[in-house]
Design brief:
The complex is a heterodimer of chains A (427) and B (278). Chain A has 427 residues and is α/β, with parallel strands linked by helices. Chain A contains 16 helices and 14 strands. Chain A has two domains: 157 residues, 3-Layer(aba) Sandwich (Rossmann fold), CATH 3.40.50; 234 residues, Rossmann fold. In chain B, strands 5-4-3-2-1-9-8-7-6 form a nine-stranded parallel β-sheet. Classes of the chains: A alpha/beta (427), B alpha/beta (278).
Amino acid sequence: MPSEFFIPDPDGQVPSAEGYFGAFGGKFIPEALVAAVDEVAVEYDKAKHDPEFARELDDLLVHYTGRPSSLTEVPRFAEHAGGARVFLKREDLNHTGSHKINNVLGQALLTRRMGKTRVIAETGAGQHGVATATACALFGLECTIYMGEIDTQRQALNVARMRMLGAEVVAVKSGSRTLKDAINEAFRDWVANVDRTHYLFGTVAGPHPFPAMVRDFHRVIGVEARRQILERAGRLPDAAVACVGGGSNAIGLFHAFIPDADVRLIGCEPAGHGIDTGEHAATLTAGEPGILHGSRSYVLQDDEGQITEPYSISAGLDYPGIGPEHSYLKDSGRGEYRAVTDDAAMQALRLLSRTEGIIPAIESAHALAGALEVGKELGKDGLIVVNLSGRGDKDMDTAARYFGLYDTDAEVAANAADTAEIEGDAK
Amino acid sequence: MSGAEFTGGNRGLLSDTLADAKAEGRAALIAYLPAGFPTVDGGIEAIKAVIDGGADIVEVGLPHSDPVLDGPVIQTADDIALRGGVRIADVMRTVREAFEATGKPILIMTYWNPIDRYGVERFTAELAEAGGAGCILPDLPVQESALWREHAHKHGLATVFVVAPSSKAARLAQITEAGSGFVYAASLMGVTGTRESVGAQAQDLVERTRATGTGLPVCVGLGVSDAKQAAEVAGFADGVIVGSAFVKRMLDAPDEAAGVEAVRELAGELAKGVRRQA
C-alpha cells in the first residue's frame, strides 16, 4: 500500500544530483562533514524507497502526530480579509504544536537507521527544539538543543518543555544570540562529534540533502491541504500563504501546488520594524545571493559578505538566510514573497484569537497578516489557504507584554522595559 | 591550465619554502593570525613578529561574522577585528606589508562567502598583486571549487585544501589532485582551538594522504599549541600549523606591544620544536 503521509517529491526535477535548485543550494561544508552529509544523503535515498520506512513513518504521523491535520474555515476572520474565503491548514494541532514534528519524526527514524545514538538540533522559537526533544524521548536518543540566548528568554516556556523531555538546552551567547548563532554552534558540535551524532536540521536550508529531505517530510502539508480544499470549496485556492523564516512550513504547503499554475504561492517574511529601518529578517526582499550554513541562497549580508544581524519579534523567523528552493521559486517567478511587520503580525495574532478562538504562533501570524492583504487584493470571490504552522502558547509572554495583558500597571511597565531590552539587544 | 599563465602570486615561493624546510630535515612552522586583530597595524606587527620568531609561512585570517569552524579563541579575535571595522582592503594591506617586510609566503584563510561576494577574479587579482601565496578555504569543498581554482591558478596562487580524519581514500585522491601548495591535514574532528594532545589519527591521516601518491607536502593543524606537540607532529608531517595558541597569547596580553612580544616568543619555542622532532 502506498504511503499516505510520507509523500516525497515524485518528480525529483529539483534539486539536481549536486543539490542545486537552479542557481541555489549545493553543499558548502567543511571536509570533516563531507562523509556524514553523504551518509545522510545515501540513507535518506534508501529510506525514501523503502516501504518499511514509509509504513513506520506513516504510523507515527497518524497515531502519534495526529495526521491528517484539519482544514478550518475562518469566516469571522475573513470578514477582515476583503470577504475572501480563508481556510487554515491546522499544523498547530499536531502533537507538540507545530509543523516541525513532520520532519523530526522522519529524521529520527533516519538517525536510528544510521545507527547514531545522539541528536543535536538548533531552534529559534523552540518549536523545532521541542519536536526534536520529543522524538528523542520517544526513540531513546540523547539530545542536545542549541538556542540563541535571546530566544531562550523570549521562548522560556519552550526551554522548560525541552528540559522536561530530557534534552540538554545550550544557550548560545555568540553573535546576535539568535537562530543563526544556534546553527553555527550546532555545526561546531557536529564537526566534533559526527561519528555518533546526527544533526537533525530543522528547516529547508543547509547543505544538500537537507533542503530536499526536509521538504519531502513536510510535503504532506500541501498534499493534504490540496485534497481538503478541493473537497470543501470545490476548487483550488487562488493563493497558498505561509510565513517564511528558513522556509520549511512554506515549502511544505507550497510544494504540492507548484504544478497548479493558477495557485499563487505567497511567502510572508518578517519585516520587523520595517524594511527601511534595517531591523528586519526579510531575506528574499532585502538580501543578495551568498553562502550561509552550507548552501547558496539569498542571504542578508553587507557588501563584503559579512552576514548582517537580523531582527524579528518572532524568534522562529529571526534568520538572515532562507532555504535555496525558495530562492529558486522567487527567481523563477513561481513564488511571491512579501514582508510583514511585527505590528501587522501582532494585530493578526489578536484578530484570529478574537474572531475564531485560535491563538496562532507569532510566526504563523505573519502569514495571517499576509492573508489579510491578499484577501483584500482578491476580493470576495477569493479563496485562500493559510498554513497555520504553529500555536501561540509559547508566545503568550511576548503577546502579553505587547498588548499589555498583565494585571498590574507596575508589572506591565516592568515587562515593557524587559521587551525594550530584548529588542535593543537584537539591533 | 599550464604554468605559462602564471602572473603575480607567490605560489612558487610557498613550494620553495616547504622544500627548503624539508631539505633541512625539519618540518615547516606555519602560523595563523587574523587580520585586523587587535588592530590592522597591530596585526601586521604580530605577523612580522611570528616570522621574526621563526615561522616559515603565515596564514592571515580574513575575519568572518559566522566562523563556524572556529572555536571560542578565534571567534573572539574575529569579533574584535570586525567590531574594529576591518575590511578586505585591510586584509590585503596586511598581506602586502607582511610579505614586503619579510619575503615569506603569506596565505589568506577564510570562509567562502566573503570571497564569493567580493568577486573571485577581483579577490585573486588583488591577493596576487599584494604578494600573497594562496588561500585556504575550509568551507569550499573540492567539488564546488572549480571557479576559484581557475582564477587562483591564473594569478599564481595556491589552493590549499583541508583533509579530515573522516576523509576516505577516494576523497583524499580527489582533493590532493585538485590542491596545490600543500595539504592541510586536520589533526582531529573538531573546530580550531588548543588541545592537550594531538590525536593519533593525525599521523594516520598524513600517511593515508601520502598514500594517494601526491607530491604535495602534508601539514598538520588543529590543536597544536606548544613546542612538545610541534616536535611530535614534526616527526610525521611536513609542516606544523599553529593558530589558536598564537591568538590566545595576544588575547591574554595586557597590551598590543606585549601581545606582539608574546607571539614572537611562542614562535621561537615552536620553531625549536619543529627542529627537534619527537
